[in-house]
Amino acid sequence: MSRDMKPKWSDPERPDAFSSYVRKGVETEAEAAVFQKSGRFQKKGSGGPTVAELTKGVLEGNRGLLARAITLIESNAERHFSQAQELLQNLLPYTGKSIRIGITGVPGAGKSTFIESFGTFLCEQDYRVAVLAVDPSSSLTGGSILGDKTRMEKLARNPRAFIRPSPSGGKLGGVHRKTRETMLLCEAAGFDVILVETVGVGQSEVIVRDMVDFFMLLVLTGAGDELQGMKKGIMELADAVIVNKADGLNKKEAEKAKEEYNRILHILQPATKGWETKAYTCSALYSTGIAEIWNEIEKFKKQTKQSCVFDDRRRKQTKEWIYSMISDQLHYSFFRHPDIKKQLPKIENEVISGDRTVASAVEELFKIFKQSEHK
Ligand SMILES: Nc1nc2c(ncn2[C@@H]2O[C@H](COP(=O)(O)OP(=O)(O)OP(=O)(O)O)[C@@H](O)[C@H]2O)c(=O)[nH]1
Ligand SMILES: [Mg+2]
Asked: Nearest residue CA, atom 22 of ligand 1?
C-alpha cells in the first residue's frame, strides 16, 4: 500500500500548514484487512479512529479526522461500506447548510486559478471553503485533476480552506456517490461554501450540475469560434457564464465576448427557474471581478430560496441520487456475480458469431442472475 503523501504544492518549510494528504484508495479486500481491525477503520496497530470518533471529529471540524472520514467514504472495500454509511447517518442532521457551487470549463480555461482566487476571497470574507473535484478520467488513470496542480498553492495553505483531490472510480457507485457523500461530510464539518471543479469534456458536467445549487461555466475569449463550436447544451446547464482572463490586452476582447454570450443566453432556456443566466468577465489571475460573481451567487441564493426553487432542486437531486445508486448497485452486483462472470464470455461469443440474438442472450443472463440470487 502506498504511504500517505502531501500534495506537491504543500510547503515543505511548513509541514503543519497542510492537513490533507493524497492517499491511495483502499482497493482490495486484502488491503482492507490491513485497514480494518475489530470494527475500527485503522492501520495495523495504529489505533485509528472508530466511527464514533470520526463523527465527533468531523462535527468539531477536525481536518485530520475529516480527511480520514473521506478516505473511509472513498474506500472501495465492501467491509468499509457499512461503517461509512453509519458515519453518514450520524452526520446527516448536520448537512445541507452550505451553498454548493459547480465550476466547469475546457482544459486551460482557468478553473483551478479561479478557485484559488475565488476561494481565497471567500476565506477573507470569513467563509470556510471546501474544494472537491469530479474527474471523468480518474476512474481510468487513478489520477486527479487537482493532484498535479500548483495553482491552488495559497488556498491549500489557508486554514479556512480544505482541498480534496478527486477520488478514483472503483465500485459501489464510483466517483459520483463519493463526491456527493464527501460534500455532506464537509458540510457537517462546518464548511459553508463547497466548490466542485470538473473538466468540461462530456458527462461530468451533467453529473456535477445534478449535485450543486449554482453552476458556472468558465470560458475564454475568441468567442466567435468558440460559440460556434460550443454545445448549446452546456450553456443551458449554467447559472453564470464567466469570461475569464479579462486582463491586459485581452480585456477588451473579453468584454466583447461577454456581450456575445449575453445575446445567446438571452434566447436559451435558463438553467434555473426564475433566474436569468448572464455572462460576466473576471481575471482569476489578478482577482478582478471575483467579488461581483459572489454577489450574484448571493442574489441567486436569496431569490431561489424565496421562490422555493432552491429547496425543490435539492429534493429532486436527492431523489435522482436514489435512482442512480440503484442502477449503479444493480450494475455492480450483476457483473461481479460469479455465474455471470463464468457465462458471459460464452454467451457474448454466441451473439457475436451470429448464433444468438442480443435479446435472448440478455434474457438468459438475467435468468442465471436471478436463479442464483435465490439459491
Ligand atoms: N492572463 C490570465 N491567465 C490566466 C487566468 N486564469 C488562468 N490563467 C492561466 O491559464 C492557464 C490555465 O489555468 P488553470 O487554472 O490551470 O486552468 P484549468 O481550467 O484548471 O485547466 P485544467 O485543470 O487543465 O482543466 C495557466 O497558465 C494560468 O496561469 C487569468 O485570469 N488571466
Ligand atoms: Mg484545473
From this structure: 107
208 touches 246 (CB < 8 A): no
Distance (Å) from CA 198 to ligand 1 centroid: 14
The answer to whether 284 touches 114, Cβ cutoff 8 Å, is yes
What is the pTM (predicted TM-score) of this model?
Answer: 0.81
Q: Where are the alpha helices (DSSP H) in the chain?
A: 29-35, 51-59, 63-74, 78-91, 111-124, 138-141, 153-157, 174-188, 204-209, 223-229, 232-235, 251-267, 290-306, 309-336, 338-352, 358-373
Domains and CATH numbers, the chain: 49-94 (1.20.5.170), 96-306 (3.40.50.300), 321-373 (1.10.287)
Give the DSSP H/E element, type plus range, for residue 199: strand 193-199
Is the beta carbon of 136 within 6 A of some atom in ligand 1? no
Ligand 1 proximity of 178 Cβ (cutoff 6 Å) = no
Q: Is the CB of 245 under 6 A from ligand 1?
A: yes
Burial (CB count <10 Å: 0-12, 13-18, 19+), residue 209: buried
β-partners of residue 218 are 105, 242
Mutate to test the pocket of ligand 1, among 9, 103, 112 (most ligand atoms within 8 A of CB): 112
Per residue of the chain (375 residues), give pLDDT as tens. Answer: 344 455 554 555 554 454 444 444 454 444 444 444 444 555 444 557 999 999 999 999 999 999 999 999 988 777 888 899 999 999 999 999 999 999 998 888 899 999 999 999 999 999 999 999 876 654 444 444 444 445 788 898 999 999 987 766 554 456 678 889 999 999 999 999 999 998 766 677 888 999 999 999 999 886 455 555 566 788 899 999 999 999 999 999 999 999 999 999 999 989 999 999 999 999 999 999 999 999 999 999 999 999 999 999 999 999 988 888 888 788 888 998 999 999 999 999 999 999 999 999 999 999 999 987 655
Give residues with Cβ within 8 angstroms of 248, minimum separation 6.
Answer: none
Closest residue to atom 7 of ligand 1, CA basis: 110
Residue 19 CA, distance from chain mean position: 20
